[in-house]
Amino acid sequence: MAIMTTTSSHTFLPVLERIAEEIGHTPGRGRPADYIPALAARDPRSFGMAVAELDGTVYGVGEWREPFSTQSITKVFTLALDLAREGDELWEHVGREPSGNPFNSLVQLEYENGIPRNPFINAGALVVTDRLQTRTEDAAGQLLDFLRAESGNPALDFDHEVAASETAFGDRNAALAHFMASYGNIDNDVTVLLDQYFRQCSVAASCADLALATGFLARHGIRADGTRLLTRSQAKQVNAVMLTCGTYDAAGDFAYRVGLPGKSGVGGGIIAVVPGRCTLCVWSPGLDERGNSVAGVAALDRFTTLTGLSVF
Ligand code: DON
């Protein structure tokens, strides 16, 4: 597998090389998401993995520079952008407990009066995007600006084909948004909110871009340019919710195997944070039945096993 680097200080490169070789020999990679037809065409054998150090050094193996559909990974960034603006008031509108249910589940919402369990299931992410939209009038644009700035990649953009594909098959997200609106937990017109949310999910970015963009969570809230986005305490909160809720009904198994705050997306990407040390992003489009990348989880599992780095 080709190995490319961008700078000379690459502490974990030998570990990444070993993981890429092991993954290359592993059969069974799951299946790409097909409920969004534009995602179904990706090759499940694609694999890339990048590490970003706190100073912005980034390196990787495999297809670490290949853009893929970020999908639910963006929920971390919209959460941080909204939390930075409104602080604890957000938690009156979305909880922070694991749901134990699939990412697109409707069942808890009625029992819990339209307050979603956490910001990483779709219902919770819709609430966060709605609140960011109210505060900025362009939630998806704010997200894109943030990702471009943190990754240093001004070419990052929405994938309009993916957004259109998801809009065409968006009945479940529309149901979630309307249901929460009936409880008064959505401010904006649902059509406007869904447009923002689907564009948010459609952003295409590489492992290198996303590992860099996640850096503020390893730097306790400090952005790439040295300014503060989140308080140290808020950065801890986001990392904690990633650990407990970032991989949906597989969050317990992810914490057990990987032991890091992580967030997956149905495009096959997963970001992970080693607070105070580095960030990671891995991508492989084949998913397990809970919507997490099979090779991605395996690669992060190997990373923490081989390096001994975890939050435990
Ligand atoms: O809302 C959806 O269905 C997608 N756009 C995002 C889902 C997603 O990535 C869930 N993650 N595993």
UniProtKB/TrEMBL annotation:
| Pfam families for this protein | Glutaminase
Q: What is the lineage of its organism?
A: Bacteria, Bacillati, Actinomycetota, Actinomycetes, Kitasatosporales
In which domain of life is the source organism classified?
Bacteria
Show the SUPFAM superfamilies listed in the entry. Answer: beta-lactamase/transpeptidase-like
What is the species listed in this Swiss-Prot or TrEMBL entry?
Streptomyces monashensis
Per its record, how is this protein called by name? Glutaminase
Q: How would you classify this enzyme at the top EC level? A: hydrolase
- Gene Ontology MF: a single term: glutaminase activity
| Gene Ontology BP annotations | glutamate biosynthetic process; L-glutamine catabolic process
For this protein, what reaction is catalysed?
L-glutamine + H2O = L-glutamate + NH4(+)
Its keywords, alphabetically, are: Acetylation, Hydrolase
Signal peptide (from-to): none
Summary of subunit composition and partner proteins: Homotetramer.
